[in-house]
Structure formats: structure tokens, C-alpha cells
Design a protein that fits this description.
This is Sialate O-acetylesterase. By secondary structure, this protein is α/β, with parallel strands linked by helices. The protein folds into 3 domains: 101 residues, Immunoglobulin-like; 253 residues, SGNH hydrolase (Rossmann fold), CATH 3.40.50.1110; 92 residues, no CATH class. It has 11 helices and 23 strands. The strands form 5 sheets. Strands 1, 3, 4, 6, 7, 8, 9, 10, 11, 12 and 13 form an 11-stranded mixed sheet that branches. Helix 5 packs across helix 11 and helix 9 runs parallel beside helix 10. The longest helix has 17 residues. The radius of gyration is 25 Å and the shape is elongated.
């Protein structure tokens, strides 16, 4: 009996000795916390362990206590941007986080076009910044590719400062996005990269969202498995998004959709459901800005065009914005357009205008708004075109009109100030108008600021 009692006491002593404060990897030295916000700090300790937390930007000490399972969480308010600071945690052990910054935090996620780094293709636009990138106050957190069957509370990764070495293996789109934010906001920028090339949007969506929607579940089951990346719902969300949903962010940028072309029928519902699910997990309606997939030779059924239409439909959600890329492609045989500079900058323009209220950044791609039928002519109203439209490299191309028989003819076009009038003498009663609605069509209509008109398809009633 004494022997067992000694073992029990020993186990208790051992358990107490290892029951120390632990933090998730996202809370570590070098991190950027969202400025002027209520941010959460959380972690683990021994059951009912008393913890004191002291950020160096205040003289106050915050006190908390872990619950019976050893978990703890507090919310603190951060002041305006600045740093570097430190944060001390005291319990049975002590942890000091150093080089902590307050600024703007963005999650950068998607598949390979968001994952795309300098080291993939030695892109010249990134190389041009090697000598200066360390001055932009950018801080990177890269989440490694992994999956989980259930939502996780922690993920691997560490914060690093942007320099000529770290930028080479970080998302090029995210880098240029963060660079332009820093140049205009003059605050530290934290970029959390969570990407996996080839992944369909289903894996980034909580499996409960898919499983509770018979329509989405049916289409999920049509995705062909591959050994190269996960295809089952929720797997990357659980491992690469769920662990950071307590981390306060300014918003998200997203570049994905290429791997959903075979199931484009469900993408409009799926994408909006994913955005809503992320916002629910963070418990805030943060901005969600995304990139429309680029022209590429997918197949024979305009699958890419259908995905682009589904992405455009997501703009119905509040605080969303979309970057059009049809003018940034030089080779439609390459699914990875090399121009990530302009993609990142266009995303930043949306954020600077919509989220940070810098109204000088107001040049966005014209989007289809509505139509008016006037006899055999269709007048198409566009947004973001008040200063006029023009075609590049000759007459307007990739704009077609069809009647009841579904036979398409190249449209005769008149570019108005903020609208387009289309017709064809062979179409007496127009029923369909398509612009750039093809896997590889790029279109050549631009606004005065040289932003491309987004592709569209109109079904006339």
C-alpha cells in the first residue's frame, strides 16, 4: 500500500512540475497584435493556476486563473500601433515574449497562387525588393501544411521579420499586399500565411458546414481524391485555420478556386458559406478580399468562367472585394501567372479604400450592375467607370450576343461613359450577352484608370 501511495504522490509532484504556462505558437516573440483592439491572449497551465500578465505598453498587470482543465484566456485592449514591446507571463514558470509589435494583422490564405513564392520562379518583382524589403515593418507567420480530423487549438509556426532571406519563401501576393499597406498606413503589418496548393475550398470550410448542407455534401463527394493534397471537407480548416481563430485580425485576403473548376456548380454557395463560417469562428464580420482566378486552359465547358462568375456572386456579402486578373496573364497554359506584384497591390487598394478609409485609392475594376433592353440593343451599366471606358489594342473583343436560338455573334459595341451598348444585326431579340466568359478570354475593355472590366454573363428576361 505504501508503495502505491508513494507512486501516486510522485505522479502528483511530477504533474505539478510539468504544469507550466504554455502559449500557442501564434503567440510568440516577433508577433504583431492588432492595434487599438480587444485582443485575446490564451494558453495552458496547471489546473486553477494563477497567472499574471504584464505588457510593457502599460503599467497594469492583468491577473487570471486557468480552469480545471488547465486552459486560460483573457482579453486586453491594445493601444495604437508601435513597438517593439514585450509581454511577461508569470505563473509557476515565467515566459517573456519580445519584439512584440502593434499594428495591422491579415490572414493570407488559399491555394498555389497565394502560396506562390520567389523561390518557385525567381520572380523579378520580388527580387527587385531584396535590398529594401526589411524597411517595410512586415512580420511573417507561416503555418505549415497539415490536416486534422477535428479543430485544433494550436499549430506550428513562428514569427519572423521580413528581410531579403525570409521574403524568398513567403507568399509573394501577401508580401506586396503588406508592403503597400505599410507604405500608406506607416504601421507594422503582420501577415499570417496559411496556404496549400491544389486544395479545393471544401477543405478550408468547417466539415459541419458541408455535412449540414445536402447540396454541398453531394458536390463534395464528387471531388476526386489525390495523394498530393487533401480533398475532404474541413481538414485544412481544422489544422491551419481553427488554431488561429482567437487571434484578432484586421481581415483576410484569399486566392483560390482553380481546384474547384470541376465542381463549379456548387462554388457560389460553397464560397459564401466558407466566408460566413470563418467570420463566425472569429466572431466578427472582418473584411474578406479575394482574387478572381486568371484565364487558363481548363477544359471545354467554360469551367473557369463559371468559377469567376461564382466568385463575383460572393460580392453580395458585406465587406468583400474582388481583384480582377484578366489583364495580368501572359500565358494561358500556365495556371500560375507570374505577376503577383499587381495582384497584391490591387488587394491592398481595396483594403486601403474600404477598410482604412483612404479614399484616394478608388480605382477598381468595373463590374456589371444592370442592363436595359432597347429594341435589339442592350445597354449594360457598369460600376467604377464614371470617367469613361476604352478598349486596348484595337476594337473591343470577347463580347458576344445571342438570341433565342443560342447562336452567338460578335457584338457591335459602343463604349459610353459608364455603360456599354451592344447589338448585332442578326439578333433581333437579345437573350444572352457574354464578355470574357470563356476559360481563356481576357477581354480588352478598361476604365480610365486602366483597370479591366470584370467578365460577365447576362441572361435577358
Amino acid at each position: 500500500m505504501k508503495r502505491y501511495l508513494c507512486i501516486l504522490i510522485g505522479l502528483l509532484i511530477f504533474g505539478q512540475s510539468i504544469a507550466q504556462i504554455r502559449l500557442p505558437h501564434i503567440l510568440s516573440s516577433g508577433m504583431v497584435l492588432q492595434q487599438k483592439a480587444d485582443v485575446k491572449l490564451w494558453g495552458w497551465a496547471g489546473p486553477a493556476e494563477k497567472i499574471k500578465i504584464t505588457p510593457s505598453w502599460t503599467k497594469d498587470t492583468i491577473k487570471t486563473k486557468s480552469d480545471g482543465n488547465g486552459k486560460w484566456q483573457i482579453t486586453i485592449h491594445t493601444p495604437k500601433a508601435g513597438g517593439p514591446y514585450n509581454i511577461q507571463f508569470h505563473g509557476k514558470n515565467s515566459i517573456t515574449l519580445q519584439n512584440v509589435w502593434l499594428g495591422e494583422v491579415w490572414v493570407c490564405s488559399g491555394q498555389s497562387n497565394m502560396e506562390f513564392t520567389y523561390n518557385w520562379r525567381k520572380t523579378k518583382d520580388v527580387a527587385a525588393d531584396f535590398a529594401t524589403c526589411n524597411k517595410y515593418q512586415l512580420h511573417f507567420f507561416q503555418i505549415p501544411k497539415t490536416t486534422a480530423e477535428t479543430p485544433q487549438e494550436n499549430c506550428d509556426g513562428s514569427w519572423v521579420d521580413c528581410d531579403s532571406n525570409t521574403v524568398k519563401n513567403f507568399s509573394a501576393v501577401a508580401y506586396f499586399f503588406g508592403k503597400k499597406l505599410n507604405e500608406n498606413l506607416h504601421v507594422p503589418i503582420g501577415l499570417v500565411s496559411s496556404n496549400w496548393g491544389g486544395t479545393p475550398a471544401e477543405v478550408w470550410t468547417p466539415d459541419s458546414v458541408i455535412n449540414n448542407n445536402s447540396f454541398l455534401k453531394e458536390w463534395q463527394q464528387k471531388i476526386k481524391p489525390t495523394p498530393w493534397w487533401p480533398t475532404e471537407s474541413g481538414l485544412t480548416y481544422n489544422a491551419m485555420i481553427a488554431p488561429i481563430t482567437k487571434y484578432k485580425i484586421a481581415g483576410t485576403i484569399w486566392y483560390q478556386g482553380e481546384s474547384n473548376v470541376d465542381t463549379y456548380e456548387s462554388y457560389a454557395t460553397l464560397f459564401k458559406s466558407m466566408i460566413s463560417a470563418w467570420r463566425k469562428a472569429w466572431d466578427t464580420e472582418f473584411p474578406f478580399y479575394f482574387v478572381q482566378i486568371a484565364p487558363y486552359k481548363y477544359g471545354t465547358f467554360n469551367e473557369g468562367a463559371q468559377i469567376r462568375a461564382a466568385q463575383t456572386a460572393a460580392l453580395a456579402l458585406p465587406k468583400t472585394g474582388m481583384v480582377v486578373t484578366s489583364d495580368l496573364v501572359t500565358d494561358t497554359n500556365d495556371i500560375h501567372p507570374h505577376d503577383k506584384h499587381d495582384v497584391g497591390y490591387r488587394l491592398a487598394d481595396i483594403a486601403l479604400h474600404d477598410n482604412y478609409d483612404l479614399k484616394q485609392f478608388d480605382n477598381f475594376s468595373p463590374l456589371y450592375q444592370s442592363y436595359t433592353l432597347k429594341g435589339n440593343k442592350v445597354v449594360i451599366d457598369l460600376s467604377n467607370a464614371k470617367e469613361g471606358l476604352h478598349s486596348k489594342n484595337g476594337a473591343v473583343r470577347d463580347l458576344y450576343i445571342a438570341g433565342e436560338d443560342g447562336k452567338f455573334y460578335p457584338a457591335e459595341v459602343r463604349l459610353n461613359k459608364d455603360s456599354i451598348t451592344v447589338y448585332n444585326k442578326n439578333v433581333a431579340a437579345p437573350k444572352i450577352v457574354e464578355y470574357g466568359f470563356n476559360n481563356t478570354q481576357m477581354g480588352n475593355i478598361f476604365n480610365k484608370g486602366d483597370m479591366p472590366v470584370a467578365p460577365f454573363k447576362i441572361n435577358i428576361q
